[in-house]
Write a structure and sequence with these properties.
By secondary structure, this protein is mostly helical. It has 19 helices and no strands. Helix content is about 85%, strand content about 0%. Helix 2 (about 40-60) packs across helix 6 (about 120-145), helix 7 (about 150-175) runs antiparallel to helix 8 (about 180-200) and helix 17 (about 420-440) runs antiparallel to helix 18.
């Protein structure tokens, strides 16, 4: 596949998967004005922290099987072998969800005291434990639809889940006045329905007998990713834990609104990540794969930085228009988290050399270093800068993790990336955001800065590296054109 055609395919898949994610993200964004009026910042913080537990538990139920499915699915010799692999992964995910969900339900009180600084919220964790098997299978269905290149079914499945969860959340919280519990009742019903729908959509992909040999092979690949899951969880969610233990649940609620405000960037980056994994592995056997990978990184950084800077520049006006004043402190953290999301997305491009060389242990080590840095910075910054300090710590942690992984990945299997230039463009976007806050610029000035950066980003994205060193060509197997 030529570079231009591969990029067109990646762009098309990203847009399609983006539509699937858009339904859910848009529902979440639409719910924010309603829920911030129904809940105090402290109550909204409880919702965010319990959903945080759900996200971490789901990661552990995966055990690296999502990466293993993407990595080995295309190497299966025939259709029946692929069906056996998918069935094996499905059974593993369901069993993992049941085991972890049961553990969360049994340990709800101590977990509530640890994570939410009080045992009073154990009932919400029990509802979470009930939903986890359904959530785990629903997410497996998403992965199976991606690796089998069925994006429109992927869209349908996510739309069913998110619309149902959104409608039920409003009904339970505002109509039946179930308060915070209503959010989690809606999750149980919505994820159970989506799991059943996923089973129906995958009826032709599943059905073969599970293979223990296949399971062992997939776990051998995904096993080293379990420490990565732990460290990545710390890297991603340490911000809330530092806030709840050194600040308050109200701070967590404000921070949660900042996360939602950065959702357009997360939506775009997630859509790219969903399309990137299968596309990158499938393209690895092509002659010009190195040029393709390099151009993807360049365009990703340019587009992502532009979008994140837009969030940073215009967040105050968005908050004042739609969100109660108790949450207006989310403006600056939202911009920083948008930039952090872009840095985190680049991590998956930088990891490609490590993935292809099957040196996944480096992922856990580097993510662990990033997690330590993030937590240390957050602890130092919270007493003085509160929510904004935690957001800065998250941005620095994600950026350093990506930079360290980039260096290691290039040492294992170098590709013609323009790493330094990408870093400079991203740093420029961060500096413009910080300068506009420091000077308390008017909306007109911020708009002009964003337009100027758009011109720089467009020029960078469209420029191409003309040559690469002979050693790089020999190692990467790429002819840079």
């Amino acid at each position: 596949m030529k570079v231009r055609g591969a990029i067109a395919r990646l762009t098309s898949d990203s847009l399609v998967y983006g539509l699937g994610q858009a339904a859910g993200r848009m529902i979440q964004i639409v719910l924010v004005p309603a829920l911030t009026r129904a809940f105090t910042p402290a109550e909204y913080g409880v919702v965010d922290l319990v959903l945080l537990v759900a996200a971490i538990a789901t990661m552990f139920s995966v055990c690296g099987m999502d990466a293993a499915l993407a990595r080995f699915f295309y190497e299966a010799p025939d259709r029946e072998a692929r069906r056996a692999m998918a069935t094996t992964s499905a059974v593993h995910r369901l069993a993992g969800g049941i085991a972890l969900g049961g553990a969360i339900a049994l340990l709800a009180r101590p977990l509530s005291a640890l994570i939410l600084d009080s045992p009073s919220y154990a009932k919400y964790l029990r509802l979470l434990g009930l939903s986890l098997p359904f959530t785990s299978f629903f997410l497996f269905a998403n992965e199976a639809l991606r690796v089998t290149f069925q994006p429109w079914k992927y869209i349908a499945l996510n739309t069913i889940n998110m619309v149902l969860v959104g409608v039920l959340t409003l009904w339970f919280v505002l109509g039946l006045r179930l308060s915070v519990a209503g959010v989690f009742y809606a999750k149980v019903v919505g994820d159970a329905t989506a799991a059943l729908a996923g089973l129906l959509l995958l009826r032709h992909t599943l059905g073969a007998r599970p293979s223990w040999a296949t399971l062992r092979r997939m776990l051998a690949y995904g096993g080293p990713l379990i420490p990565l899951t732990l460290t990545y969880s710390v890297l991603t969610y340490a911000d809330r834990q530092v806030l709840v233990h050194m600040g308050s649940l109200a701070d967590v609620g404000v921070y949660a609104v900042a996360v939602k405000l950065a959702a357009p960037v997360l939506l775009t980056v997630t859509a790219f990540q969903l399309a990137w994994g299968p596309t990158a592995f499938a393209a690895a056997t092509n002659e010009d794969h190195g040029a393709f990978y390099g151009r993807v990184l360049t365009r990703y950084v340019a587009g992502g930085s532009l979008l994140a800077l837009g969030v940073a520049m215009f967040a105050p006006e968005i908050l004042r228009a739609f969100i109660p004043s108790a949450y207006w402190g989310a403006a600056r953290p939202a911009g920083l988290l948008a930039l952090a999301t872009v840095a985190n997305g680049a991590y998956f491009i930088a990891a490609l050399g490590v993935n292809l060389e099957r040196k996944n242990g480096w992922l856990a080590l580097i993510a662990g270093l990033g997690a330590v840095i993030t937590v240390a910075l957050a602890i130092l910054c919270v007493p003085r800068w509160g929510v904004t300090g935690v957001a800065w710590a998250t941005l620095v942690g994600f950026s350093l993790s990506t930079a360290m992984l980039y260096v290691k990945s290039q040492s294992l299997r170098p590709f013609p990336y323009r790493g330094l230039a990408c870093l400079c463009l991203f740093a420029l976007a961060t500096a413009l955001a910080a300068a506009s806050w420091r000077m308390e610029s008017s909306l007109a000035v911020r708009g002009a800065l964003w337009i100027a950066f758009a011109g720089v980003a467009a020029g960078f994205a469209l420029s191409r590296r003309k040559t690469a060193s002979p050693a790089l060509r020999r190692t990467a197997g790429a002819e840079v054109r």
